[in-house]
Specification:
By secondary structure, this protein is of the alpha/beta class. The protein has helices at about 1-15, 20-25, 40-50, 55-70, 85-100, 115-135, 190-195, 195-200; strands at about 70-75, 105-110, 145, 150, 170-175.
Length: about 220
């Protein structure tokens, strides 16, 4: 009886609501739909979109690279020297890049707003080349790295005419896939994206596994 009364009361309340009212829409839709930001089922959806050509797979890789490692290194004024912090960041970038031999990268060089645009463009390019050279020294194939573009002083992080370290930077980004590699187009997108997880679950021959009992 209480259940019937509750249903009746809910129906009476909804009778005064319009179709645009959140209470009305949440009552007549799937549970939790009002808080769904579009992330439910994204793994399957993204794979389908990538494999059917509806979504650029480089976008997903670029997002993952930027979230997993710091894609930016900074420089002293009028310098292309990689300091200790820059080298530490680039070592992490190289570790990430090494996991995905199919992927190509582009390094963009930037400067602050001090100096002429022509000089800064050349300086930005030299910074990008310095980063590419360091990544190559870490075992990354040079053919997978591109340092052809420099935005010079045209894309500052901080809009100031003064010296600004945050503007003196390079940014490493995913630019695409190695054309000669066949894995991308054969439906194995997840194999590329999650290769390290697949490898971590693969038993290694010759390794003795020891089970240690622990208490609760």
């Amino acid at each position: 009886m209480k259940k019937l009364m509750t249903t009746a009361m809910a129906a009476a309340l909804l009778a005064g609501c319009t179709a645009d009212d959140p209470t009305y829409s949440s009552f007549f839709s799937e549970a939790g739909s009002e808080i769904d930001s579009g992330d439910f089922g994204n793994a399957t959806m993204n794979n389908m979109l990538v494999q059917t050509g509806q979504q650029d797979y480089t976008i997903n890789l670029a997002r993952r690279f930027a979230s997993d490692v710091n894609s930016t290194v900074n420089f002293a004024f009028n310098s292309t020297v990689l300091d200790a912090d820059a080298r530490a960041t680039l070592i992490k970038q190289a570790d990430w890049i090494r996991q995905f031999p199919e992927v190509r990268f582009r390094v963009y060089g930037h400067t602050d707003l001090v100096g002429s645009n022509a000089y800064n463009r050349r300086l930005g390019l030299r910074r990008a080349q310095a980063v590419v050279g360091f990544l190559t020294s870490q075992g990354i194939d040079r053919s997978r790295l591109e340092a052809l573009a420099s935005f010079g002083e045209t894309r500052p992080v901080v809009a100031t005419q003064n010296r600004e370290r945050r503007n003196r930077r390079t940014v490493t980004e995913v630019s695409g896939f190695v054309e000669s590699n066949p894995l991308i187009l054969n439906g194995k997108y997840a194999e590329v994206i999650f290769r390290e997880y697949v490898r971590s679950a693969t038993p290694q021959s010759g390794r003795r596994q020891t089970v240690i009992s622990t208490g609760g």
